[in-house]
Specification:
This protein is α+β, with helices and mostly antiparallel strands. It is 30% helix and 24% strand. It is built from 6 helices and 11 strands. The strands form 3 sheets. Strands 5-4-3-6-7 form a 5-stranded mixed beta sheet, covered by helices on one side. Helix 2 packs across helix 3. The radius of gyration is 19 Å and the shape is elongated. The model has no long low-confidence stretch (mean pLDDT 97). The protein binds benzoic acid.
């Protein structure tokens, strides 16, 4: 069954390029991004893993770990990492799960049989410190993901978990936010002392509260 927002991220034990892990223990008390790859030694995946390696520090600044998964075995992953490092001018610095029995792929519904009967699609799960799923994305094998978008979503998720705001289309960290409609007009000055502007009764902006 497909996983939905708010569901607990299924736990599993698996071999990775950094050793055997229990997923929930590996996540610890922080945030996590789990993203799948159709197969090792494939061109789009090679660029994606290189991109994530270069962004790992930005995920860490957000208290977020990253972990990839592919259904190929661990020896294949290790050889592929050499190619990724060589061609993407980086050093893969996060674990890649080996899932040859497709157990994790099945738990996370990463195989979409009408797209491909054996390979996973490009799934993304952002998991919160409570181990609940906060975001899901599904891309086709032919389209590499935009990992800066995941950083943007993390900024929004972490902000909106703390303040009664939502973030508008194309929002970037530091830009004005939307005050959620549950906040009454008369409550705004106390909760958002930086000020606000009311465009419509349901559309009220405030400067980002934690900046
Ligand atoms: C790729 O990563 O390039 C890829 C993988 C599977 C199918 C198509 C492309």
């Amino acid at each position: 069954m497909a996983l939905r927002l708010g569901d607990e991220a299924p736990n599993f034990t698996a071999d990775t390029t950094e050793g055997r892990i229990n997923f929930h223990e590996w996540l610890g008390n922080g945030w996590g991004v789990l993203f799948s790859h159709p197969a090792d030694y494939t061109p789009v995946c090679t660029t994606e893993l290189g991109a994530v390696a270069k962004l790992k520090e930005k995920f860490a600044q957000r208290n977020c770990k990253v972990i990839a998964i592919s259904v190929d075995p661990i020896d294949s992953h290790k050889g592929w990492v050499n190619d990724i490092n060589e061609t993407q001018n980086t050093s893969v610095n996060f674990p890649i799960i080996a899932d040859p029995r497709r157990e994790v792929a099945a738990a996370y519904d990463m195989i979409h049989p009408n797209a491909d009967t054996t390979a996973t699609v490009r799934s993304v799960f952002i998991i919160g410190p409570d181990k609940k799923i906060k975001l899901t994305l599904t891309y086709p094998a032919s389209t590499g993901r935009n990992f800066m978008e995941l950083l943007r979503v993390l900024d929004s998720l972490q902000l909106t978990a703390k303040f009664k705001v939502a973030t508008p289309a194309d929002w970037q960290d530091g830009q004005d936010c939307i005050i959620v409609t549950a906040v009454k007009d008369e409550e705004i000055p106390a909760q958002f002392p930086k000020g606000h502007r009311k465009v419509k009764p349901y559309l009220r902006y405030t400067p980002q509260p934690n900046k």
